[in-house]
Amino acid sequence: MARVVVDVMLKPEILDPQGQAVQRALPRLGFDGITDVRQGKRFELELEGPVDEAALARIREAAESFLANTVIEDFVVRVETEEEK
Amino acid sequence: MTIRVGVVTFPGSLDDRDAQRAVRIAGAEPVALWHKDKNLQQVDAVVLPGGFSYGDYLRCGAISRFSPVMESVIEQAQAGLPVLGICNGFQILCESHLLPGALTRNDHLHFICRDQKLRIENVSSAWTSDFAPGQEITVPLKNIDGGFVADERTLDMLEAEGRVVARYLDVNPNGSRRDIAGISNAAGNVVGLMPHPEHAVEPLTGPTTEGLPFFTSILKRLVNA
Fold it and tell me: Cβ–Cβ of B109/A21 closer than 8 Å?
């Protein structure tokens, strides 16, 4: 079974108050030297059939219309290899 | 002639009953619409109420947008049907691309619940014609994802076309760009609003009755149509 990963992140110009709150908490916990945190979403899609160009095109369509709101978010679609699993 | 205003109930809607009540107090007949039913029952206007439809999973309004009832609402709104989205309803209208921009997490990360002062800046939309230009009102506001964002070009367009329907006064409660509390589409039949006018329609339960003109506006417009 093949896995396709869709990463969704807020666009750089959109304020990310959740990421900022995480960033502010890090030094308090002793994790220094982290200057910025952006928080996003990761979707793992398990495919029934092969990951061919047609399947990826459908997933890009799903990401564009549903998984991400492209008014405020960017997304990246990638195929996960066996070693990565 | 009785004006019939549909109020949609999604799984997780909270303010559908209050919206129905506001419609009734304004003098129209509320019609309950169900998220799974495409049939809008020939209503004259639709209110998308506040709440947490589909648990706000994925993003607020992202799943509701694809519900059967929204297929009809989107189609008919594009043809001129008056639609008011309040809070979660505003989020659904943005996700549906009936309105530009998006609603994001409040900049201070807290849920907010307060009586909020607003200025009504557009009195030509289907839902605001019963206000005086520049009228200041106070209605409840309650949200955690109420920050209105859009790119600068879209914000400039909204301002230039007079599509900012309401703006926050005194305090910006959620980090909304340019203090925007509500906007309309270009035709003025679709309005999205983060604060809750349906909770301010009678003295017993609301801080004021200053939310009522949203509902009497639509009545007046439809009667005169």
Answer: yes
Q: Tell whether A28 is covered by a domain.
A: yes
Mean pLDDT check: name the lowest of A13-17, B10-14, B28-32, B185-189: A13-17
Q: Does ipTM surpass 0.90 in this model?
A: no
pLDDT tens for A36-61 read 999 999 999 999 988 999 999 999 99
**Tokens representing residue B121 in the block:** 């800046």
The size of chain A, in residues, is 85
Q: Indicate which CATH number applies to the domain containing B127.
A: 3.40.50.880
A47 in a domain, yes or no?
yes
Any catalytic annotation for residue B87? yes
Q: Compare all CA atoms of chain B with the CA of A67 and give the residue at the minimum distance.
A: B58
Show the domain range for B40: 4-224
- Interface size A-B, in CB pairs within 8 Å, comes to 34
Given strand A40-47, what is the order of strands in its sheet? A40-47, A2-10, A73-80
DSSP state of B162: T
Q: Is A72 on the interface with B (CB under 8 A)?
A: yes
CB contact under 8 A, B102 and A66: no
